[in-house]
Amino acid sequence: MPVLVASDLDRTLIYSCAALALTMPDARAPRLLCVEVHESMPLSYLTETAAGLLTELADAAVFVPTTTRTRRQYLRINLPGPTPTYAICANGGHLLVDGVSDPDWHASVLARLADECASLDEVQDHLLTAADPVWVRKHRVADDLFAYLVVERELLPEEWVKELAVWAENRGWTVSLQGRKIYAVPKPLTKSAAVREVARRTGADLTLAAGDSLLDADLLLAADRGWRPSHGELADSGWTAPDITVLPERGVLAGERILREFLRASGERP
């Protein structure tokens, strides 16, 4: 039976310039490979070593990119190695099979959201009225499933995020602050549910996972083994759990280490 590797992408395997954390002397910095271009500009990177490891991983396991990105945002990423058969986008709202969203999975997600939490319209209206234009740069809705704000972090009042989290909690939603983005996501919309579906379809009986944000916590808890870097929301909050390994690396070198751990764990399987 195959090993399933479900990994978050941004700030877990791939990194923007701002998130690279290249703290070593310039002459010792790793060679980087650009894996995403947006509006004719390079946007996301991994190390060339990580690129080789990711290609190796495709032979050792079923690799499933597992991201909060929308389908369009995910599809502009050009990862090294063979194109994954499965990918999870919109925090579990879309299960892509050969690049196409599975309609039955998406319909089941929509039905659950309608039954268990407040509507996207209600949450979006609240964000539009409660957020201060002084520090909000963009209001966005992702694949008609959840909403997020792009903000100026240095101007963002910390208490506002806490107040939003309380408001959202009472309506069946959760709030996550990642870099310059504040996400409001329905609680039933989870990466772990989609990963369990991929495990069912592939027959995998061992799941490995990695992630850095609060939206990855359910994914890590659902895996047999998980890893998180020493940066991101989970690190900032000191989050950990049984079978979760906290890696000392930060930035793009953490992505390289995570891929080494995936390969090692896949190879250790009896």
TrEMBL record:
| Any one GO molecular-function label of the UniProt entry | hydrolase activity
Originating organism = Streptomyces cinereospinus
Keyword Hydrolase in record: yes
Q: Which residues form a coiled coil?
A: none
Q: What is this protein called?
A: HAD family hydrolase
Q: Any keyword Plastid?
A: no
Domain of life assignment: Bacteria
Database matches in InterPro entries: HAD-like_sf, HAD_sf, TPP-like
Q: Give the keywords, sorted.
A: Hydrolase
